[in-house]
Amino acid sequence: MVSTSAARVQQLHSAQLLHGPAQRALLYAHSFAYPKGKDVMSIINSQEVTFHFTDSELELLRRSRSPNLFPVPLLCKVLRFCCLDKLLDSYDQAWDVSIPPPKPSLEHHVAVIHHHYDRFEAGTPAPVQGLCDAVLGVVRSVGEQLGVVKWKQQHDAIKQSIEDIMEDVHPGMQISERIMSAAKIESDLRLESLVRAVSVYMDRNRNTSLLDDYDTTSMENMKMALKIIDFKNNSDGAPTREEGEKNVPVEDLLDLLQNRCSESIDGKKICCISGEHGSGKTTLASSFAVTWVKEPNAIEHLRDFDFLLLTSGKDINQTALTKSFGSTKSQRNDLDNFIDEFWCVVDAFLPQCCAKYGVKNVGQLLATKKVLFIIDDAEDMTEEKAKELILFLGQIKFESSVIILGNPESVDRLKLDFTSYSSVQHLHLRGVSMEYLQELGVKFKEPNKSGKRKVQKTFRDAIKSDLNRLRQVLEYPELAKETVALFNKRAAIVKECFTASELLWSIFFFKTGLALGVDLDKDIRRRKKWFRWMMVVGENCLHCLKRNARLNEASLEEIKEESNKIFGSEESEKLMAMFFKSRLVFSADSFHSIPTSTSKCQLLYLATFFAANRLKSEEPIAIGSFLPKIEPEEMVVMMAGHVKRWDKLDDTHEGGETISPETMKTVIETLVNYATGKAEDVTFLFKLATEFHCSHKLVQYMVNVTEYPEEWDLKLCFIYQRTLEVMLQHVAPVRIILRTDELLQNYEQHSVLKFLSQVPISVWFESKQQFAYDSNKKMDAMIRPFLNKEVRSRVDLLSGALTAVTTLDLADYKSMSYLVMLALKVTDVEGLTAALTLPTHLRQLLWFELKIDMKIEDIVLTALPKMHVEMFDVYLRDLDDYSIPQITGLLIKLHKRYSGIHLDSTTLSPESIYTLLKELKSKGIVLCASDKSIDKYRRWYYPLLSNLPTDRLLGDKEVESILGFDDRKFYSDHKIQSSTFVKSIDAWNLTSYLEELKEIKYFLYKADNLSFIKTLDGEVETEHHSSIHVDTTGTIL
User: Where is the NACHT domain (predicted)?
Assistant: First the structure.
């Protein structure tokens, strides 16, 4: 519950007293009580009292000997445990604040200050007067107890400082300076409190974890993988670009944000980081605070900020509403008039200062400073509060940065609201970096129980071949540590895990055995109890999953109540502590931790355990009642993992019943048909087959209830060799289309391609990333397994980029002699020459697309070889009106017939295009494919047309009726993109000429202000893009 204004003012006074007078008094005592010349750490070690200090405090003591750098709680501890020559033993009752002393001593006053600090951190400060008395008591006791003569002078100075704070009197300081000083004190103490809370939180989780007995402490600070999703730039039409996974360390995040947003119009640096529950968002947010306090120079640009302010979406929700606004257009148009009303958001960042000086005064001060705002748990913000936040951010200084963390759905909503800013960076936190995990995995070796000398496999060896499938689990920090713990105890189990669901089952089974102190494989009675417990937990997890939420305290209380009934309170407590951990929560008044589920992956698996077991019950249940609206396929696939586990159970397991083949078939059919069209979704069916552990029996059950397409359209990064093998044994497709864009690294890619090269089947390779301009990705490594004499498959389509050497190699191998369609991007003269030479050696090649990603002036026309292919497309870019002679010469040199001319990122005017088309026509260049080549292509490309009689050409209408769409555009598709401004006379000339060119099926010229489109029916249409309209009569409208 949010504190009252009076309580927060008192809290601010406590902060100011602790930061100033209290620290000065403790330093004064330290200077006379601490033994001179002795190292603090040596005293702590000799007294064996390290357990009284947090990890961060011990680290600070090792790094610095200057007490001036010690925060208040550390000074209190040093006085208590390291000053035994002058002060009483640390266990003396004088240090106990709950026992009133007959005569207050220095020890008692120090303990009171420490107690006040602890209360301050918890958000419930004790009365300020008690703190003031303790501070002055420390100085007085130094004189009376330690015999310091001139203590009264220090006493009077600190007393005056206390009075100034309490009366808000600061001689020589303006109101803005007083607010600045108070804000600095509050923010610094909040960050120090957070660092201590992080340390306590980690200790608590470590003490209740199964990892205590297994060395995983080196995994405390795992590196995270941040995937750059898009760079949104509203001034350019808000394009989105996929950049794949990039491992961005925390220390580089601000640098990334600085560089990405440096060219934005308003200078705002806003970064939205999405991530699933348990992926490490809160850890990432708190790491900034830890670094700010402990190692301020470790993160570049961090200390460039005046403030680091951290809060949560829930706290922003609780800020007082000063004015609500509606959703009507008129109300939204008036929002700018109420900008001052939304300073209330500041209350979530500096609640104590706001209570004393007012949210608007504090907010206007922050607006002039360079601030790093961090907002965690964005999903807890209401839509109205999110808009208030955005209005507030509009007032802050340009150099400030904002990092907002939330689940993917909340981040997607926020991105839509940030339309008033020119740039917003979106990153997705994937969790633990797989490269880092493999690097770390070398340190962990399987246990050698026999004692004999043998080569011990490392954790990296155990997971490497299955990393594609196991990464769904290992990306979550807590589950990664638990997997390592399982490996350290039972390496064989981890080595045998093929799927994510199998690994999760092994982890949960292992954790339960540890919690209950039994072997569940042998203790049938306990195992059946645990099955009942898992059903209770799973049902609660399912409700949370459908709400896209974590397990909350109410759910955990319900689980605990049922758990006590099943196991009894003692075993129930151990089991609850093993499965559910505390998470850190940022609050306006304190930082604390609450118990919850550890990750979405854990939540998902437990929910599927319940749902899958309900599906096999006698009562028919619709699967839709179990599925969440967001990513239901993910849940269905994991339910398939339970089906595989049932297949090898006997009647001593789980519910005590074996599963009949009929029930198994019914459940599999339910999973396959959970949504319309899924029975034909090859990627989905591959996922199910993988979860079935590639069991021939289960895959056959699945195949019996599916309608497989003749073409398998698959992403290479998601294909596993065992799955591919078993699927091909049950189904025989006509061809396999491999999408080779690397959305994720496939650690089995080489073995998959090597196996596929030995299968007598048609294979297509296609990569949009490689074929894109400016991409430096190549396909050489992917097609290399197909370039040898023993290959049995045939490659009849290839689209991407190759080196010149590999391009020439295509002509030497039988597998490539079947190529019917080839699309290559070239970036230099050598690659261009190799690409133009190749078609002569590929006798079956029907269609060649060539993208020239180089300056046209670097092309020497006389050096280009002659090329012969029936259908040809060419792509060029960065052209202007002065390039027309080179363009014309190149097109005349390359071919006599074009199915597509694509000129991108040009400044070409309609007049230049008119000149180009006239010149091509005069040289006999045709701008459409021939009827015969179109017919050959259609019969090859579309399986529906492949078996039709070949004694005649297929008509366009006939093809359209069979396919269900008109495909004529592809065989005469010409596009020119220009940033020029079209004049009326140019528009008239080009339009008239396009109408004369009867053979062109489709032609698009898109300029800044309008586009000319020649459609399939031969008409020329004009589309306007600005307020100035140009028609074909030459009149400007």
Answer: 270-440
